[in-house]
């Protein structure tokens, strides 16, 4: 590829033609006066002349930053949610580029809340794209009744002690044993012919 170099143009004529020569002379003056402008818009080669915006190609920058590159043509690529329409407008002698951006999906806050007021509910990641409001609540369960709770473990964690209230210790299963104040089970002798009610009466009276 060669650069365009201005030079004086002369046309030889076998027979002088003053009118024709004067017209050509005026045209040459016009071309020479605007040659620099023409040179900037043309690239000269041995077999073609390309209109590409300058001798080195089109310079491309992004966001008015540093130069990305200089090339003889541009390639527009549709990005996500972007549609490009490129039309060769021969009447206006230009390429029309229309860029359409699809509207982003509007995500609204959820209008529902899952009620979680029971024990033993399984966790779930969910599938909804809605977001929750900052003042949302899931609620709380009502105070459960003692007999509605699940069966306890077979241990002494909740037994009553001398230091704190609690639940009755596990029964011994022996009909003649009684719960003492220290939390132990004791057997009261029925020697002397006392009946069971008599023993209970004496226990309640403290002797």
Descriptive tags:
rod-shaped, two-stranded antiparallel sheet, 3 helices, 207 residues, 17% strand, 16% helix, alpha+beta, single chain
Structure description:
The protein is of the alpha+beta class. It is 16% helix and 17% strand. The chain is built from 3 helices and 8 strands. The strands form 4 sheets. Strands 1-2 form a two-stranded antiparallel ribbon. A two-stranded antiparallel ribbon has the order 3-4. A hairpin with a 4-residue loop joins strand 1 and strand 2. The longest helix has 16 residues.
Give me a quick take on this structure.
The chain is an alpha+beta fold and 207 residues long.
* Helix proportion range: 10-25%
How many distinct helices? Answer: 3
H/E element order: HHEEEEEEEEH
Distance between the ends: 127 Å
**What is the topology, as strand order, of the major beta sheet?**
1-2
Percent in strands: 15-25%
How many beta-strand runs?
8
* Low-confidence regions: 43-54
Shape: rod-shaped
The biggest beta sheet, please? 2 strands, antiparallel
Write the layout of secondary structure elements.
Elements (H helix, E strand, L loop, with lengths): L17 H16 L1 H7 L1 E2 L4 E2 L7 E4 L5 E5 L10 E8 L4 E8 L75 E3 L5 E3 L8 H10 L2
């Amino acid at each position: 590829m060669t650069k365009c170099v201005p030079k004086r143009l002369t046309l030889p004529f076998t027979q002088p033609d003053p009118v024709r020569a004067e017209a050509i002379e005026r045209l040459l003056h016009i071309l020479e006066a605007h040659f620099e402008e023409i040179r900037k818009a043309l690239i000269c080669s041995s077999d073609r002349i390309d209109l590409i915006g300058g001798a080195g190609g089109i310079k491309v920058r992004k966001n008015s930053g540093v130069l990305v590159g200089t090339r003889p043509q541009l390639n527009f690529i549709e990005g996500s949610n972007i549609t490009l329409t490129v039309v060769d407008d021969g009447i206006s002698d230009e390429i029309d580029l229309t860029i359409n951006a699809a509207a982003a999906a509007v995500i609204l806050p959820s209008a529902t809340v899952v009620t979680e007021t029971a024990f033993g509910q399984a966790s779930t990641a969910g599938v909804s794209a809605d977001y929750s409001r900052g003042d949302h609540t899931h609620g709380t369960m009502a105070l459960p009744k003692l007999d509605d709770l699940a069966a306890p473990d077979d241990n002494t964690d909740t037994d009553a002690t001398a230091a704190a209230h609690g639940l009755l210790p596990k029964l011994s299963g022996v009909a003649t044993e009684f719960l003492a104040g220290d939390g132990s089970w004791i057997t009261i002798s029925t020697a002397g012919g006392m009946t069971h009610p008599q023993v209970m009466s004496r226990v309640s009276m403290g002797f």
